[in-house]
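User: Fold this; tokens only.

Assistant: Input:
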Amino acid sequence: MALLKLAAVLLVGGATLIPAATATTSTTSAEHAPATSAPAAAPAPAPAPVVLDCTGKPQTRPATYVLACGDGNNYLTGAKWSTWAAGSATGTATDQANDCVPYCAAGHFHGFPVDVRLDQPVPWTGHPGQVRYTRLTLDYPGARPTGMPAHFVWPLPRPVNAVAGT
């Protein structure tokens, strides 16, 4: 019984028990060295930043992203992300924009190559350790939708229950 109590104490204390059949004898001082605990496990990596879609659903590296939440007349397709990091994400996509001629319901979508950047991450309230991007920048290297500047900065949707700054 005393042996079982000793084994329990040793296991709780982090010591390793070696069965007698495999034990070896040593004349070094290591035999009398105190037991050391295993190195601490590395902390889990922070979750990847997210971009919230029109409904507040988190997305990571989305291939499509709706820009015009009200009517869907402008959205990104074929997004290829070259970086997705804590501070920003960069990539390329095609901006699909409705020309709304003669009116939006009868209009036609046209695609325009665009460089995309997501940045200004903030902590996402209610999601410990999670950040979300709050700004999208579009840079058109060539043709662009009528009325759209070559460099356009867009604030991203906030969660429905967002508090100012989150």
